[in-house]
Amino acid sequence: MPEIFLYNTLTHRKELFKPIKEGEVGLYTCGPTVYFFAQLGNFRTFIFEDILRRVLEYNGYQVKQVMNITDVGHLTGDNLGNADLGEDRMDQGAKQEGKSPKAIADFYTQAFLKDLDYLNIQRPQIMPKATDHIFDQIELIKKLQEQGLIYQTSQGVYFDTAAYQAQGYNYTVLMGQDLEEKKVGARKEVEVDHEKKNPYDFALWLFTVGRFANHLMRWESPWGTGFPGWHLECSAMSKKYLSQPFDIHTGGIDHVSIHHTNEIAQSTGAYGVPLANFWLHGEFMNVSGKRMGKSEGNAFTVADLIKRGFNPLAFRYLVLNTHYKSQMNFTWESLQAAQTALQRLREQVGGWRQSQSLTLVSNLSDVR
């Protein structure tokens, strides 16, 4: 196999890639929370992961790609590092649209798959849903309980980061900072579960009590009726379909300090071995110099591209002009330039094909 070097967030350096099993690669890519349409910033990451898979396959590797579909447990506060803050995005979306969580999940999952096709992103071979793997997630919590790494409050079951550190693990290894630095950076102004031991302990299972009393999705567990925390699903499903450890785990740069840090902690804490050997992260995409988001009014989707007359592949072409580890600034002007460049490239390639056909006809005439 040709040598391939990848920047590994886990070690903070570029390394020669060596798969666990010769000629095969296990690739896990964090997928969408299907409560609404995925935005272009998300698809920048999915395009980077698609290119990674294609490069590996081009170089002779057989890639088994798994991408999760999050249809429960992702709270609006999770990206802030407060797993006990906010509402479940799926529950919120279902109530806003007056539909069941399953109907919401099914609709936006299909929309996501359609957008993948528009952008010529290969569909992962395995796309498991969190709600189809509740048992696996409960089993993972049981393993953590055996290792003394959980505790229970009136609100839910939490991962004990202090106990994890006491067992010799480094909770912040992916971030490249120590726990005290993370503690300083923890948000103080938000309302949290005051029964938590530490602000960075995260929810494994949330009970359907208090503000979650009317939660639309709930399951029985050894600790009480409730639903799983967001981070749990990726650890449970990646192990189920790729084993542990596997080769490469990818996602957006925003996953480093919270989601992937928590995945590593619960997976290594439960099984005593790494979750993945390589971790790759795509950088943010801004819009006209501003953060992309619903609150900014610029969370554009693939449908928005089409409505404005753009070919979705022009966006893919635009994305490929910026290194995945560099921040990208999206503007409609840059997209127009990308579409023009793509069209010119197609015309040029089309000319090559026509020229080759004419040459072939000419040669055949000479033979006759």
UniProtKB/TrEMBL annotation:
Keywords: Aminoacyl-tRNA synthetase, ATP-binding, Ligase, Metal-binding, Nucleotide-binding, Protein biosynthesis, Zinc
Any one GO MF annotation of this record: cysteine-tRNA ligase activity
Domain annotation tRNA synthetases class I catalytic: ranges: 17-339
Pfam families, per the entry: tRNA-synt_1e (PF01406)
First-tier enzyme category under EC: ligase
Cofactor(s) for this UniProt protein: Zn(2+)
Gene Ontology biological-process entries: cysteinyl-tRNA aminoacylation
SUPFAM superfamilies assigned to the protein according to its UniProt record, in alphabetical order: Nucleotidylyl transferase (SSF52374)
EC number annotated for this UniProt entry: 6.1.1.16
Any one annotated GO CC term: cytosol
InterPro entries: Cys-tRNA-ligase, Cys-tRNA/MSH_ligase, Rossmann-like_a/b/a_fold, tRNA-synt_1_cat_dom
Subunit: Monomer.
Protein name as annotated: Cysteine--tRNA ligase
